[in-house]
C-alpha cells in the first residue's frame, strides 16, 4: 500500500450561485520517497488539489467526497486537532511566493521554533539548535545571524531557502511544493530546485511538485499527472508522458514548449483557453479546444461532446480520452483479427 | 440628436445592468436607508409647506405654551404634536426647519471640502516634489489635530474676529467654510493616492505622448478614475459634517437659537433636561441620529459594493 | 535609534513652529494687552507710550521671536479672567482632562481589541453581527448626545411603566425598562489631592463614580471606530499567505489569531490610534461641557466665550505640545512593533 492514496477526491466551492466543482474524481498515489509532479494551466485545480490534502482549502471550499489515506490513516474526516498533527509534521508545504509566505513581524527564529514546539515537547534552546542545523542544510550563509533577522531583511531566494528549511524541520514524509520557484528570479530558480531535489533524495522525503513548468517536472519527478479543468486527464511515469504524450492536451502542452518550435516561426499554442469551472462544456472538458474530435474520415466522434472520458491504459500510463480509447479498440480488433 | 438619445439610453442601460443596482435590489438595509433618507430630505426641503408653524416668525410664538410635552404624555396640547421648546415654539416645525439647516450645512461643507481636497490631491499627486511634500505635510498636521479641533479653533477665531452678532447672522455660511476648511485632507490624501496609482498606468503616458496638456490629463483622464473613492468618502463626510455642525452648534459656535439647526436645538433643550423636559433635547437628537445613521449605512453599502482603494490611517 | 529620534524631533519642532506662528498671529491680531492693563479710561497718547515700551510697535519678526522665547519658557502672560499666569491656569485644569482621556483610552483598548478580534474570527456569529450593528449606530451618535442620553438614563432616571405594576411579572418588566438614576453627572466631585495642582479621581470609589459617565461618553465615539477598524484589518490579515502557511505548519489557531494575525493587525491600528488621540482631546471639549467636568476643554470654551486671548493661545500651545508628544510616542511604539521600520538609522 502506498504512503499516500487519494481516491475519487471531489472538492467544491459553495458560492451563492451554487456549488462550483473545483476538483472532480481526482485519484493518485505516492510511495515513500517518490516524487510526483502535478502539471496544468493556472486554474486547472493543481493548487486546490495540494491544499485539499491537508484540508487547507480556504472557505467556501470544502471536500465533497472521496478519500485521502495517509500512512493508513484517513484524512478527510479528521478534526482540526488531529489534522494539525499531520500538518507541518508528517506532511509539510512550500508556498509559491516567498515574499508573502513568512510573517513580516516575526523573526525567522520565532517562525521556525514555533513550528517545532507545536509538534514536539522540546525546549526553546533545543528547537533553536535544530533550526540552526536545518538552516545549514539549506546552505544559508551565516545561519546563526538569520535566526534573529526578519523576513524583509532577506532576499526572495534566501526566504525560499528558509521556507524549505521550515518544511524540513520535523523530517516529514512528504513535502508539497506549490510552484516553489515561479516567484523567483530566473537565475535562482534552478538553484532552489536543485537544492529541493537534493534534500528530498538525501532524506528520502516524498515530494509533490505542483508546477506548470514541464522542464522542471521532467528533471525532478518520477511520475506526473496532468490536470485540466479540475480533472486528471493523464498520469504515469514522467519520462513516458514527456516522450510520448497520449492526451491531445498533453501533446499540446509539450508542443507549446519553445524548444519544440521551429526558429523564426510562432510558438505552437493550444487554441482557445481553459473554460471557467462554473461553465464547463459537456462531455470531455477539453473538446472545444481539441483537434481530434473528428475521425480521419471526417466523421464526428460524438462521445467527445456527450460523455466524460474514462481512463484507459496506455503503456504504463492512464489517459482519459475518447480518441485514445477508440484507437486502442481498433488496434485490439485488428490484433484479434490477426490472431484468428 | 439621435446620437444623444443613444448615448443616454445606453447609459441608462448600463446603470440598469450594473452591479450597483443589482446589489441594491438585494440589500434590504440599503433600500430602507435610502427610503428614510429621501423622506427626510424631502421633509426638510418642504418644511415651509409641511410645518404647522414657522419657528422664524416671532409673531407665531406663544411663550405661555413653552415646554409642552409631546402628544403621548399627559398635559400635551394636540396643537403641538411633538410638544414645544422652552420658548414655546412648535417642536415638530423647529425640527423640520432645523433638519433643513443641518442638511444645507452638511452638503455645503462637503461640496467645499471635496473641491478643495480634490484640487489639492490632484496637484500633489500629479506635480509631486515640493508641492506634494508641502500639501501632504499640511494635511498630516491638520489631521493629527483632528478635524473637530481645527473646526472649533477656526470657529472661535471667526467669532472673535467678527463679533458674536455678525457671526450669528452669517453662521450658516461660516459653518460651511469652517467644516470645509477643516476636513479637506481626507479627500486630498485619497485622491493623491489614486492619482499616484493611476499616473503610473499606461493610458496617462499615452495621453502625454499625444501632447495633451497636464491640466486636461488630470481632469479628463485621471479624475474620472478616482471617482469611486471620492463617492464613498463623500457619503461618510456628509454624515461627519452634520455631526460636526451639531457639535459646533452645541458648543455655541454654530447656529443661533433664533435660526436653529438640530445641534442648537439639542443645546437649547439640554438646559431643561434636569427639569424633566427631556423631549426638547432628545427628539431632535433622535432625528439627528437617524439622519446620520442612514447616511452611514448607505456609505457602508457603497463601500462594500464599489470597494475602492481608500487611504488608511 | 538616535537618527530616528532626531528625525522625529525635527518633525515635532516643525509642527510646534507652525502652531506657534498661528498662536502668535491670533495674539497679535486679537489680543490687546493695553486694554487689559489699563482699561478704557486712559487716553490714547499714554497708550501709545505703553505700546512702545512693551515693544508692541516692533516689527512682526522681532515680536514673534520674543513670543517664541517666552513660549519656550511656558510664559504666555496673564489670563484676563483669572488674573494669574495662563500656564498655571491650564496646568490646574490639565489633570482633570488627562484623567478623563486616560479612563476613556482604557475603555477603548480593553473593549475594542477583544470585540474586534472576536467579530473577525467569527464574522457570521450573531454576536458579531450584533456588535457590528451597535457600532454603526455608535458612530452615528454625536458624543454630546451620548452624554445627554447617559445623563437622562443614569443620572436623572427613567420610569417607563407600560405593564401592570401590581403583578410580579409586570413590575419586573417595568423594572427592566426603567432606570434608577442617581449616578453623579456634574463635575468631578471631591477628587483626592496628589501633589501640586494634581488631584485624582482614581484614588477613591466615589471619585471613580464621577468618572464613569464622562469616560463612557468620551469613549463612545472612538470605540465603534476601532472595533470596525480592527475587524476589517484582521479579516484582511486572515486571508494572507503567511496565515495560510502558519496553518500548514500545524500551528494552533489560537497562536495564529493572537500572535500571527493580531500583531499584523495592530500596525495600522496603532497609526490610526495616534491620529485619534488628537480627536479624543478635541472631544473632551464636548464631554466636559455636558458634564461640567472642570478640565481644559471647559476652560477653553469659557476662554472663547469671554475672549480671553492669552488663555486661548496657551491652551492651543499646550494641547499642540501634547499632540506632538503623543504622536512621537505612537511613532516610536509603531517602530518597536514593526520590524520593517528601522529605528537604528541604518539605511534599510
Automatic annotation (TrEMBL), chain C:
Pfam families, alphabetized: BPD_transp_1 (PF00528), BPD_transp_1_N (PF19300)
Localization in the cell: Cell membrane
Transmembrane segments: 9-27, 100-118, 130-156, 208-230, 265-286, 309-337
Membrane topology classification: Multi-pass membrane protein
Key words, A-Z: Cell membrane, Membrane, Transmembrane, Transmembrane helix, Transport
PROSITE patterns from the UniProt entry: ABC_TM1
InterPro entries linked to this entry: BPD_transp_1_N, MetI-like, MetI-like_sf
Recorded coiled-coil stretches: none
Domain ABC transmembrane type-1 positions: 94-334
Membership in a protein family: Belongs to the binding-protein-dependent transport system permease family.
Protein name from the UniProt record: ABC transporter permease
Organism: Halomonas litopenaei
Amino acid at each position: 500500500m502506498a504512503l499516500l492514496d487519494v481516491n475519487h477526491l471531489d472538492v467544491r466551492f459553495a458560492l451563492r450561485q451554487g456549488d462550483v466543482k473545483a476538483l472532480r474524481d481526482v485519484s493518485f498515489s505516492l510511495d515513500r520517497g517518490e516524487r510526483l509532479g502535478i502539471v496544468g494551466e493556472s486554474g486547472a485545480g493543481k493548487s486546490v488539489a495540494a491544499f485539499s490534502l491537508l484540508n487547507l482549502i480556504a472557505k467556501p471550499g470544502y471536500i465533497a467526497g472521496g478519500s485521502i489515506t495517509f500512512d493508513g490513516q484517513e484524512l478527510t474526516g479528521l478534526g482540526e486537532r488531529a489534522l494539525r498533527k499531520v500538518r507541518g509534521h508528517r506532511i509539510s508545504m512550500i508556498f509559491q511566493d516567498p515574499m508573502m509566505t513568512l510573517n513580516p513581524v516575526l523573526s525567522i527564529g520565532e517562525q521556525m521554533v514555533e513550528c517545532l514546539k507545536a509538534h514536539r515537547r522540546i525546549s526553546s534552546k533545543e528547537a533553536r539548535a535544530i533550526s540552526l542545523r536545518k538552516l545549514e542544510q539549506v546552505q544559508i550563509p551565516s545561519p546563526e545571524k538569520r535566526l534573529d533577522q526578519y523576513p524583509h531583511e532577506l532576499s526572495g531566494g534566501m526566504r525560499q531557502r528558509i521556507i524549505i528549511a521550515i518544511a524540513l524541520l520535523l523530517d516529514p514524509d512528504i513535502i508539497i511544493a506549490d510552484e516553489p520557484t515561479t516567484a523567483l528570479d530566473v537565475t535562482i530558480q534552478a538553484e532552489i530546485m536543485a537544492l529541493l531535489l537534493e534534500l528530498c533524495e538525501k532524506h528520502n522525503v516524498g515530494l509533490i511538485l505542483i508546477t506548470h513548468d514541464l522542464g522542471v517536472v521532467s528533471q525532478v519527478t518520477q511520475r506526473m499527472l496532468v490536470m485540466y479543468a479540475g480533472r486528471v486527464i493523464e498520469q504515469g511515469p514522467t519520462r513516458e508522458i514527456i516522450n510520448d504524450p497520449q492526451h491531445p492536451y498533453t501533446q499540446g502542452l509539450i508542443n507549446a514548449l519553445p524548444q519544440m518550435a521551429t526558429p523564426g516561426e510562432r510558438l505552437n499554442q493550444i487554441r482557445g483557453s481553459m473554460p471557467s469551472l462554473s461553465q464547463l462544456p459537456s462531455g470531455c472538458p477539453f473538446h472545444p479546444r481539441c483537434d481530434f474530435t473528428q475521425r480521419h474520415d471526417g466523421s464526428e466522434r460524438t462521445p467527445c461532446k456527450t460523455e466524460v472520458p474514462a481512463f484507459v491504459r496506455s503503456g504504463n500510463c492512464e489517459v482519459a480520452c475518447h480518441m485514445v480509447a477508440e484507437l486502442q479498440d481498433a488496434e485490439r480488433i485488428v490484433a484479434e483479427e490477426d490472431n484468428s | 440628436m439621435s446620437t444623444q438619445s443613444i448615448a443616454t439610453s445606453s447609459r441608462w442601460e448600463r446603470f440598469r445592468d450594473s452591479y450597483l443596482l443589482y446589489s441594491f435590489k438585494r440589500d434590504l438595509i440599503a433600500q430602507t436607508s435610502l427610503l428614510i433618507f429621501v423622506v427626510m430630505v424631502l421633509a426638510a426641503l418642504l418644511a415651509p409647506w409641511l410645518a404647522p408653524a414657522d419657528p422664524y416668525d416671532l409673531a407665531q410664538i406663544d411663550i405661555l405654551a413653552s415646554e409642552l410635552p409631546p402628544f403621548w404624555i399627559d398635559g400635551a396640547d394636540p396643537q403641538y404634536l411633538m410638544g414645544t421648546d422652552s420658548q414655546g415654539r412648535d417642536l415638530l416645525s423647529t425640527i423640520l426647519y432645523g433638519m433643513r439647516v443641518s442638511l444645507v450645512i452638511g452638503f455645503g461643507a462637503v461640496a467645499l471640502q471635496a473641491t478643495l481636497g480634490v484640487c489639492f490631491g490632484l496637484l500633489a499627486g500629479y506635480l509631486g516634489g515640493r508641492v506634494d511634500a508641502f500639501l501632504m505635510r499640511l494635511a498630516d498636521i491638520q489631521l493629527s489635530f483632528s478635524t473637530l479641533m481645527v473646526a472649533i479653533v477656526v470657529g472661535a477665531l471667526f467669532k472673535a474676529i467678527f463679533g458674536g452678532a455678525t457671526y450669528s447672522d452669517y453662521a450658516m455660511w461660516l459653518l460651511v467654510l469652517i467644516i470645509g476648511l477643516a476636513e479637506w485632507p481626507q479627500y486630498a490624501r485619497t485622491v493623491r493616492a489614486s492619482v499616484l496609482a493611476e499616473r503610473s498606468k499606461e493610458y496617462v503616458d499615452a495621453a502625454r505622448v499625444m501632447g495633451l496638456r497636464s491640466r486636461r490629463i488630470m481632469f479628463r483622464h485621471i479624475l474620472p478614475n478616482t471617482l469611486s473613492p471620492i463617492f464613498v468618502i463623500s457619503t461618510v463626510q456628509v454624515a461627519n459634517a452634520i455631526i460636526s455642525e451639531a457639535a459646533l452648534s452645541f458648543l455655541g459656535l454654530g447656529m443661533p437659537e433664533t435660526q436653529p439647526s438640530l445641534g442648537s436645538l439639542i443645546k437649547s433643550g439640554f438646559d431643561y433636561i434636569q427639569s424633566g423636559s427631556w423631549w426638547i433635547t432628545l427628539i431632535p437628537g433622535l432625528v439627528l441620529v437617524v439622519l446620520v445613521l442612514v447616511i452611514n449605512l448607505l456609505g457602508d453599502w457603497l463601500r462594500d459594493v464599489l470597494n475602492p482603494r481608500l487611504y488608511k490611517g | 535609534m538616535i537618527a530616528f529620534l532626531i528625525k522625529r524631533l525635527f518633525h515635532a519642532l516643525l509642527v510646534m513652529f507652525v502652531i506657534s506662528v498661528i498662536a502668535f498671529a491670533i495674539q497679535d491680531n486679537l489680543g490687546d494687552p493695553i486694554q487689559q492693563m489699563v482699561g478704557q479710561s486712559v487716553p490714547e497718547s499714554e497708550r501709545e507710550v505703553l505700546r512702545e515700551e512693551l515693544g508692541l510697535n516692533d516689527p512682526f519678526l522681532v515680536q514673534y521671536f520674543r513670543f517664541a522665547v517666552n513660549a519656550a519658557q511656558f510664559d504666555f502672560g496673564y489670563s484676563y479672567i483669572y488674573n494669574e499666569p495662563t500656564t498655571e491656569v491650564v496646568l490646574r485644569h490639565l489633570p482633570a482632562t488627562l484623567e478623563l482621556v486616560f479612563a476613556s483610552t482604557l475603555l477603548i483598548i480593553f473593549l475594542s481589541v477583544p470585540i474586534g478580534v472576536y467579530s473577525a474570527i467569527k464574522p457570521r456569529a450573531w454576536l458579531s453581527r450584533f456588535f457590528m450593528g451597535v457600532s454603526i449606530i455608535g458612530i452615528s451618535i454625536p458624543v454630546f448626545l451620548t452624554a445627554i442620553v447617559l445623563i437622562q438614563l443614569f443620572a436623572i432616571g427613567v420610569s417607563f411603566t407600560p405593564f401592570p405594576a401590581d403583578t410580579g411579572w409586570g413590575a419586573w418588566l417595568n423594572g427592566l425598562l426603567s432606570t434608577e438614576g442617581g449616578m453623579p453627572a456634574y463635575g468631578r466631585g471631591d477628587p483626592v489631592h496628589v501633589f501640586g495642582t494634581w488631584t485624582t479621581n482614581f484614588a477613591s470609589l466615589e471619585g471613580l463614580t464621577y468618572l464613569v459617565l464622562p469616560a463612557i461618553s468620551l469613549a463612545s465615539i472612538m470605540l465603534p471606530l476601532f472595533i470596525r477598524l480592527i475587524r476589517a484589518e484582521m479579516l484582511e490579515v486572515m486571508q494572507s499567505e503567511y496565515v495560510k502557511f502558519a496553518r500548514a505548519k500545524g500551528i494552533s489557531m489560537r497562536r495564529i489569531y493572537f500572535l500571527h494575525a493580531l500583531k499584523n493587525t495592530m500596525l495600522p491600528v496603532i497609526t490610526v490610534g495616534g491620529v485619534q488621540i488628537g480627536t479624543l482631546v478635541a472631544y473632551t471639549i464636548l464631554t466636559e461641557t455636558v458634564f461640567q467636568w472642570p478640565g481644559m476643554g471647559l476652560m477653553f470654551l469659557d476662554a472663547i466665550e469671554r475672549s480671553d486671548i492669552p488663555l486661548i493661545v496657551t491652551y492651543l500651545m499646550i494641547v499642540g505640545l501634547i499632540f506632538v508628544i503623543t504622536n512621537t510616542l505612537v511613532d516610536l511604539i509603531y517602530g518597536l512593533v514593526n520590524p520593517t521600520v528601522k529605528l537604528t538609522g541604518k539605511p534599510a
